[in-house]
Design brief:
Elements lengths: L2 E4 L5 E4 L6 H4 L22 H21 L17 H4 L21 H12 L6 H7 L6 H8 L9 H12 L1 H13 L1
Antiparallel strand pairs: 1-2
Length: about 180
């Protein structure tokens, strides 16, 4: 059945499982550090119920904040869509939609002319604000496209947001073009 072992001090130990605990064979010194009892709540003014309530509030706040953040499904396949709100990123383009071909804006030239040209070309294909917004990155190249890719996530909700951000960034180039023309005359 069990095994017996005798320590050097003559203490006999019997183990049922065949494993003899070391403590039964070798006496432990009295000066070994002992584990301390688990520490109690340091703040005596706050009971466990208060701590739980505070944690529940924090969880609710975090959940509310997470609802504002677009859910992700792994790495983004279309980085150019990241500045758009979640609803725009996941809305389908109209069936048969094709991006019109026209000169892209690279950050040089008049951005208001680009918006006008974009609007006139796209108006033949779509009348929906969301289509204008989603298709806009296709009208950019070079520095302008790099700028667009660096826009913060969820910063664009509609076509007007797109135009405002675009003109804020490149509107100064209108003045530069006018200055250039004035110098040449």
């Amino acid at each position: 059945m069990g095994q017996e072992a005798t320590s050097q001090s003559g203490v006999t130990a019997r183990a049922r499982s065949g494993v003899i605990p070391l403590t039964s064979l070798v006496p432990l010194p009295k000066d070994l550090p002992r584990p301390k009892p688990k520490e109690q709540n340091q703040n005596k003014d706050i009971g466990n119920e208060d701590i739980v309530a505070k944690l529940q509030l924090q969880v609710e706040e975090l959940n509310a904040r997470l609802k504002d953040i677009a859910p992700t499904r792994g790495p983004a396949k279309h980085n150019m869509l990241l500045p758009f709100l979640y609803r725009l990123r996941h809305e389908s383009m109209p069936k048969g939609f094709r991006m019109p071909k026209f000169r892209t804006f690279d950050g040089m030239g008049d951005p208001s002319n680009h918006i006008k040209a974009y609007d006139s070309q796209l108006s033949f294909w779509a009348s929906e604000d969301d289509v204008y917004t989603r298709a806009f990155p296709g009208s950019l190249s070079g520095a302008a496209l790099k700028w667009f890719h660096k826009l913060p996530s969820n910063s664009i909700d509609c076509w007007q947001d797109t135009v405002d951000l675009f003109m804020d960034k490149f509107g100064a180039s209108i003045l530069a073009e006018e200055d250039k023309k004035a110098l040449m005359n």
